[in-house]
Structure formats: C-alpha cells, structure tokens
Write a structure and sequence with these properties.
Elements lengths: L14 H14 L12 H12 L1 H19 L10 H5 L7 H8 L3
GO cellular component, one term: mitochondrial intermembrane space
Protein name: NADH dehydrogenase [ubiquinone] iron-sulfur protein 5
Organism: Neurospora tetraspora
Length: 105
Amino acid sequence: MSSGYGMNGGPSRCFPFWQEVLACYVINSNEEDSSGKKKCAPMLEDYYECLHHKKEAARVQALQAAYRKAEAEGGYKANPPTAGQIRNLGILGKEEDSRAVLGSK
C-alpha cells in the first residue's frame, strides 16, 4: 500500500518504489508546470510493476509456452540435468557440473 505499512505492520514491499515516484514528482513538477512528470514515467512503471507484476507474469507465460512447445516437439534433452547440477552452475570447484549442464567441453 502506498501508506507505507504492509499487512504485518512493517513497510510494504512497494513503498520504496512509491517514495521514488513521489520524490521524482516533487523535484520535476510544480504548481504552474507539470510537464516534468514525464521524467517520472520509468519510476511510475516500476511502481506499477511492483504492485501488479504484469511484466513478470507475461515473461513467465512466455517461458512456459516455449518450454511446452519444446517438450511437444521432443526438443528437450534425453538426459536432463539434475537439480544439484543446476544449483552448482557457476560455482568455483564445480566446473564439471557446469560443463555437463551447458554441454560445453
């Protein structure tokens, strides 16, 4: 909520974004001229994304559709990586797991 208080009494998850939007409006606009509000569009977009997660949901749907399409075409690996191998990606000393998952030599 824009009040700054979440369900459990602490600051809400989107309150920092709201503060950025408010600070931008205060800095870039005044009573006579509100054309500076256009500069605040990216911050407002971030705030709305925090509230509604529309971009995140669209990306998840696109990834799921691509996965289902690849699975239907048989494009998935016959020997998929284990969860442990995936967790070890990029960790020093676990290069063999990274090579197995990524298919590089």
